Known about the structure:
Elements (H helix, E strand, L loop, with lengths): L1 H29 L1 E7 L3 E3 L3 E10 L4 E2 L12 E12 L4 E10 L4 E5 L3 E6 L2 E6 L3 E6 L17 E2 L3 H25 L3 H31 L9 E2 L7 H14 L8 H20 L8 H8 L6 H19 L6 H5 L1 H26 L1
Parallel strand pairs: 2-10
Antiparallel strand pairs: 1-3, 3-6, 4-8, 5-6, 7-10, 8-9, 11-12
Amino acid sequence: MALLRSAFVKIACAGFFAVWMGISVSVANAAFEAKAWVGRDQIAIGDTVSFHIEVSYSPGARMKPLALGDALGEFIIRDIRESRGKVGEREISKSFDVLLTIFSLGKHTIPEVPIIFVDHGKTFTVSTQPIDIEVKSILPDNASEIRDIKGPLSVAKRWRDILLSYALLIGLIAGSAASILFSMKHRSRVQRLIEALLKPLRVLIAFVSRILRLRRAHGPQELGFEISVNEPNLTPHEAALKELERIEALNLIERGMIKEHYSLVSETIRRYLERKYGILAMEQPTSHTLEEMGECEISDAAYSKIEALLRESDLVKFAKYIPPEDVSSGLISRAREIVEITTEAVGVSQGVGDGLG
């Protein structure tokens, strides 16, 4: 009987100890939590997606720095931002926004991201759940015959400003000479000098006035530098499509000239945006161009396509990135789509306005 009582006590103690250990382990694991999600599960190749990570842990623990490194597989990290954590009596929370991009078509998975915590000398690891993302592309069009590359643009000189500058210089010289001679009390010489200087100045002023009258007779002219192009009557939409057709005819992809192909197409789109929206797309980096585009009347879909094309072109031109053949071949189709949807948007808005009027 004593042996049975002793065995029962030992079993009860062991069971209580096991239950206590189970509770303590579950509490320790429950004190650490990590979850993740993305803004969208379908993106275009080279586009960016926001990968959000949120963690929470007990106040007595410490989280080790987030070390992604090669943990994200084929995804490339463009930016990481950590938001200010919330500190409570029972819980501390932090969140991270990771901007990712990828240049491989098909279905991909953002793998589990391990989060490491240290609590009273013990290390605990929790992981986020894997997330599936599909990367899509655009089919390319066929090329046509090869055409010559256009020559450089010519800048017209502002003859009126040049002539007026010379006239002002002569006037300053005459005034200085007159001041010196007056101080020397040679009034007669001053008068003769003034007459001598004013005579060519009158002739110059008359000549400039005649040129201006002739130019007004042939039509109004705008002030400032005028860039002359071979086909000045083309709209921005028509000029961009014609230039894309010429680039397509060069067959640069088949000749292995990927960087040249991206440079020509991106410059065409930048020139189109500059003429259509009045922004300095040719003279500033992509980030500034996109910032100004955000203030224009343009749809979110068009903005996303412009951003993807310009950023992908920057990677090819400056980071020596070589995209897949189907992606580079579809570049001109994507550029044409940008021109078409921005033009259609303008046409629709004008039509609505006319109907209301």
